[in-house]
Amino acid sequence: xxxxxxxxxxxxxxxxxxxxxxxxxxxxxxxxxxxxxxxxxxxxxxxxxxxxxxxxxxxxxxxxxxxxxxxxxxxxxxxxxxxxxxxxxxxxxxxxxxxxxxxxxxxxxxxxxxxx
Length: 116
Fold this sequence. Notes:
Blueprint: H1 22-37, H2 50-74, H3 79-94, H4 96-111
Helix pairs in contact: 1-2, 1-3, 1-4, 2-3, 2-4, 3-4
């Protein structure tokens, strides 16, 4: 079973293997991006290549998962956060579609919805 998505409202898509939604994965990727890069301003056209967007999301969720795993060894209360960060990363790794939808959700959170 894969974490495929085919819904019009992609932010509510849930990976059946991990239980993580696109919205949750995007939030974790945004946290990681802010930790790594600080406050960023992004241009809508800056990353239109879907392959690049997928790899960015996978890298960001992976970094956050690794950081939480390390922190959870020292701080007992972070085990749940580490588990969900790892699940988000796993979901983005299992499906390119899920990772791409996560990137779209991040873009929406950065800029608001596309103008109609």
